[in-house]
From TrEMBL:
It comes from the Archaea. NCBIfam families: PRK00685.1 (NF001911). This is UPF0173 metal-dependent hydrolase SY89_01384. InterPro entries: RibonucZ/Hydroxyglut_hydro, UPF0173, UPF0173_UPF0282_UlaG_hydrolase. Belongs to the UPF0173 family. Keywords: Hydrolase. GO terms for molecular function: hydrolase activity.
């Protein structure tokens, strides 16, 4: 497993398990985002993981499929999804929140941000999961004052390109690194994802949500080329499944 080290204020250990599933460890607090391990990228048994918090961006099966494997963790999502997980997955500990909100969880702050996507739940009554979301995990609570010493990681969720990346998430929440969907068809493709990376002005960008199913199979080199075409100096890092990238002091 390759591991890269960068100089920032607080240790952020990022591991990609394929699709949109990430582990983010901030000092002693471990977050798991969108648990779905039925992908060609990972050999990880979910039983090997013990996250403190599980963040759910939306209720599609390829984002909550293994939620029931983490019953002892504290879940965070919209109130609609946390209620659904309690009723259908045996989840007992949860925080419901909504777009724009920030909560302090362990050693980090989590801000729920907009994602443009659908959010139906796979139930017999076809319920809605509320608004789909992305998350910014940050070392300090976001304020209007720029904090160059604070570190933040943005998980865009399933989304198309939208202007809040340029107008709110980039300048206000100031992520240093971002994971963006690039598989097209259900989300942004390489060209729109590259524009998102340019707008966000992050140091590092990771492609995700690709090659899991035939409709989202792409060549990630296309994403690399599209980012360069924007004139951005963002470093694109294409991780293998179960590979880690460390943002470290």
């Amino acid at each position: 497993m390759r591991e890269t080290v960068r100089a920032v204020a607080m240790t952020f250990d990022l591991t990609w398990y394929g699709h949109s599933t990430w582990s983010v460890t901030v000092d002693d607090t471990e977050f798991l985002i969108d648990p779905f391990f039925d992908t060609p990228f990972t050999d990880t048994d979910p039983a090997e993981l013990d996250p403190d918090y599980v963040l759910i961006t939306h209720g599609h099966a390829d984002h909550i499929g293994d939620a029931g494997r983490f019953e002892t963790a504290h879940f965070v999502s919209t109130p609609e999804i946390t209620s659904y997980l309690a009723d259908n997955y045996g989840i007992e500990h949860a925080t419901g929140m909504n777009l724009g909100g920030t909560v302090e969880l362990g050693d980090a702050f989590v801000t729920m941000v907009r994602a443009d996507h659908s959010n139906g739940l796979d139930t017999e009554y076809d319920a809605s999961g509320g608004m789909p979301a992305g998350y910014v995990i940050s070392e300090t609570k976001p304020t209007q004052e720029t904090d160059a010493d604070s570190t933040a990681f943005y998980h865009a969720g399933d989304t198309s390109l939208h202007s809040e990346m340029k107008d709110v998430i980039g300048p206000f929440l100031e992520p240093d690194a971002a994971a963006v969907p690039v598989g097209d068809h259900f989300t942004m493709g390489p060209a729109q994802a590259a524009i998102a990376v340019d707008w966000l002005d992050v140091d590092v960008a990771f492609p995700m949500h690709y090659d899991t199913f035939p409709p989202i199979e792409i060549d990630t080199d296309e994403f690399v080329r599209e980012v360069k075409a924007t004139g951005s100096d963002t470093e694109v890092v294409v991780l293998d499944g179960d590979e880690s990238y460390t943002l470290a002091e």
